[in-house]
């Protein structure tokens, strides 16, 4: 059997016919209904972010929702007909994909397939970075930088649900309207005064966590991070190089760490899926977390979805839907 898939050739996407993926003993075969578009997909298409070893290299796509149409001989928890969503290392830009049954996420009740495809990457990344890696605890302040991206919008909701005052930043505060609609109360402008803005909003204490997708001018930003605070980096939209004055960094015992969700061993991917199914799903079903605003594209319009993200004028998620 064969399927259609968007494949990378010469740094562009081409719609091709490919063999169906092989089903392992603990895997499920998913008929894809919707695909979440991520910046990693654009970078991979341009040849700047190869898929992890052992993953299909020329079919991008990390995020999906769909229906299980076949299961492996040793599956225990999933069955044909189950509606699932998830995050995989690659290969989601296709009509079918295979994933480990325990890597699948349960779709919250009441969500469409398109809405479900906005959730896995954004919420798992934000939750892992802010709460598992940086260790934010109830009542502590967090800077979300910027709060306009899909991951930033997920972080806004998580902070609100878990009792953390959040500050969202953008170069233009008008672009924070979507984040405000999702509960963001404190705004900051991305300029040379950002650390002073953080101190003013936190009564001079600074934020406990900076959730950073921008980089790299951290020397001017770290004064807004409180003593023993944590800067966790998931992106470097502002550039690849930085210089840090280590003396105040050392004196304040601050932490900097980095996170990528894609190049993880299977055991870690299964652990994160379990966190969603056991910890976050209930917040969605209690109406405390919500799917992200989305712009929808058909499967044939996949290159247009990439261009829409490249234009960077939308605060939300681009979703490709398959009929």
Provide tags for this entry.
323 residues, alpha/beta, seven-stranded mixed sheet, six-stranded parallel sheet, 10 helices
Overview of this structure, please?
This protein is of the alpha/beta class. 28% of the residues lie in helices and 28% in strands. The mean pLDDT is 96.
Low-confidence stretches: none
What is the overall pLDDT average?
96
**Which outline best applies?**
globular
Radius of gyration, in angstroms, nearest whole number? 20 Å
Biggest pleated-sheet summary:
7 strands, mixed
User: How far do the termini sit from each other?
Assistant: 19 Å
One letter per element, helices H and strands E, the order comes to: EEEHEEEEHHEHEHEHEHEHEHEHE
Number of strands: 15
Number of helices: 10
Give the topology, please:
Elements: E1 2-9, E2 12-19, E3 27-36, H1 39-45, E4 63-71, E5 83-87, E6 96-100, E7 104-106, H2 113-116, H3 120-133, E8 142-145, H4 150-162, E9 166-170, H5 177-181, E10 186-189, H6 194-201, E11 207-212, H7 218-221, E12 225-233, H8 246-251, E13 255-258, H9 266-285, E14 294-298, H10 302-311, E15 317-321
Parallel strand pairs: 8-9, 8-11, 9-10, 11-12, 12-13, 14-15
Antiparallel strand pairs: 1-2, 3-4, 3-6, 3-15, 4-5, 5-7
Helix pairs in contact: 3-4
């Amino acid at each position: 059997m064969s399927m259609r898939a968007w494949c990378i050739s010469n740094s562009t996407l081409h719609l091709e016919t490919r063999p169906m993926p092989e089903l392992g003993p603990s895997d499920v075969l998913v008929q894809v209904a919707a695909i979440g578009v991520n910046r990693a997909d654009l970078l991979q298409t341009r040849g700047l972010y190869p898929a992890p070893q052992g993953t299909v290299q020329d079919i991008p796509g990390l995020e999906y929702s769909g229906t299980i149409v076949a299961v492996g001989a040793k599956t225990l928890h999933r069955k044909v007909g189950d509606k699932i969503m998830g995050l995989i290392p690659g290969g989601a830009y296709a009509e079918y994909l295979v994933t480990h049954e325990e890597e699948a996420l349960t779709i919250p009740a009441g969500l469409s397939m398109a809405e479900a495809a906005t959730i896995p990457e954004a919420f798992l990344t934000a939750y892992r970075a802010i709460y598992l890696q940086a260790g934010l605890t109830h009542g502590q302040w967090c800077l979300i930088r910027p709060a306009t991206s899909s991951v930033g919008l997920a972080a806004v909701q998580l902070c609100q649900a878990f009792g953390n005052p959040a500050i969202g930043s953008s170069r233009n505060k008008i672009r924070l309207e979507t984040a405000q609609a999702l509960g963001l109360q404190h705004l900051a402008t991305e300029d040379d005064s950002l650390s002073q803005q953080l101190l003013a909003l936190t009564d001079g204490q600074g934020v406990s966590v900076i959730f950073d997708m921008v980089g790299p001018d951290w020397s001017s930003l770290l004064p807004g991070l409180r003593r023993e605070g944590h800067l966790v980096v998931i992106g470097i939209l502002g550039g690849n190089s930085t210089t840090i004055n280590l003396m105040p960094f050392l004196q304040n015992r601050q932490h900097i760490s980095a996170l990528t969700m894609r190049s993880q061993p299977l055991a870690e991917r299964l652990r994160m899926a379990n966190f969603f199914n056991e910890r976050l799903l209930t917040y969605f079903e209690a109406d405390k977390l919500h799917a992200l605003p989305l712009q929808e594209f058909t499967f044939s319009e996949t290159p247009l979805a990439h261009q829409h993200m490249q234009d960077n004028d939308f605060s939300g998620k681009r979703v490709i839907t398959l009929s």
